[in-house]
Prior knowledge:
Elements: H1 13-16, H2 18-32, H3 35-38, E1 47-53, H4 58-70, E2 75-78, H5 94-102, E3 106-109, H6 122-138, E4 146-148, H7 156-165, E5 169-171, H8 211-220, E6 227-231, H9 246-258, E7 262-264
Parallel strand pairs: 1-2, 1-6, 1-7, 2-3, 4-5
Helix pairs in contact: 4-9, 6-7, 8-9
Bound molecules: zinc ion.
Amino acid sequence: MSSRLTTAGEENPLIDSGKIKLLGVKMEKENHGLSETETLQPIPDRLVVLTFDDGNKSDYTYVGPLLKRYGFGATFFITEGLNFLNNKAHYLTWEEIRQLHDEGFEIGNHTRHHKHTNTQSKSELLADLIHIDKRCEAYGIPVPETFGYPADCRGPEAIEALSEKGYRFARRGIGPEFPFHPEGGRGPVYDPDVYHPLVIPSSIPGPNYKFEDLVWAVDQAKDGKIAVLTFHGVPALEHPWVDVPPEQFETYMNYLRDNGCTVIALRDLAKYVDTSETTGKSITYWP
Ligand SMILES: [Zn+2]
């Protein structure tokens, strides 16, 4: 699948000419067959995507078992950066990551070194992605099909690299639409008609995020829009600025359950979102 990347506002001849755009859509259907779009399901109201970054130990000891009880899906974004290789009291082992996969959760790619992707060449980023792919393969985990930007940092080359490697979905954070706060906060709701699937915005629960912020996020998940949440550790032992205590996390999950939310992993968006048509969709860089 090849799709030209355009930044919102960038002049795009396909947008200016309705005739050419129609031809483009027809070709798209001929290339992919009709089955992909025919099987898409309508986006339900209160659709929530749960993601957990950095491979915190609590993914395995607390979050996974709790979500399993609730019947919720989730994506765990794994990196061998930070202190993953040195501090196995605070970070997952690959055996534990394998068990999360066995429990039905998604394992996503968060790069080998957790470097800011906007400081890397395409080939450096690609090598970091492939390293995690190989670790997954060595442990019987499927090669990740989704990506989470380390520290939310992204530029044009990173997004091109992800597109060329064939990722369907990549998750970012709150900026530039919402003000950056080091301790998390509200972010844009994901509207697949507006945002490019490799630049999916999310909210980041942390000390600067309260129960009413979760209610606010779920309230907006309607009319084709989706609430995407970026958690870290529960608790985040090494990164208190993105910590969510277990008691608080449970109140969040209870709210999702009691309000009939459909709670899925990032990869599960493929059931609802057509990623073949990206012309004119919003791509933003950060910082
Ligand atoms: Zn991270």
